[in-house]
Amino acid sequence: MRCISEPVLNGEDQRVDCTPTAIITGGTGGMGLATARLMGHDHRIVLADLDRTRLDDAARELAMAGVEALGVVCDITDKASVEQLFQRAESEGSHVRAVVHAAGISPHMGTAERIARINATGTVNIAGRKLKPGLAYAISKNFVHWYSRYLAAEFEERGALVVSISRRSRWNCLLDG
């Protein structure tokens, strides 16, 4: 298949519209909608959100601004749902050129577990569709080190010590002092 803008060289006319596609998670919120308005002038917009009604409302609002948008129900904490989002965005020969990850919740919007699931796991699912074990390890260990430093400050006030032990390269240990 060829993009509409490409000439047919061998007589086969299997052309498709290759307008670049932008996936916008959290596409029904303020940041997502603002991004869709900007990118919608030269991208096919695919909005992702958990709520079908919000997606339909957002698509109508964008249509009034001259932006065509497709709304896809997606739970970013579920890998299968994210994979379906990308498949839908790549349908009809479209090429995903941009992913804008605006989905997330703040502390007043849920429990610590829900925030971590959406903001951390959701981000890994969106950005790391092809996440390799080495990168997953690096991300998780960086979190462990950060959280240990966070806890150390709290426990230090009580005279207690928090220690995080992990296998690290000799070079990094020298830098840590």
Give an account of the 3D structure.
It is a single chain. The chain has 177 residues and is of the alpha/beta class. The chain has six helices and six strands. It has helices spanning 30-39, 52-64, 79-89, 112-127, 133-156, 170-176, and strands at residues 2-3, 15-16, 20-25, 44-49, 69-73, 95-101. Strands 5-4-3-6 form a four-stranded parallel beta sheet, with helices on both faces. It has a two-stranded parallel sheet with strand order 1-2. Strand 4 (44-49), helix 2 (52-64) and strand 5 form a beta-alpha-beta unit. The longest helix is centred in the C-terminal third of the chain and has 24 residues, at 133-156. It is elongated and about 60 Å long. It starts with a strand and ends with a helix. Mean pLDDT is 83; it is low at 4-8 and 169-177.
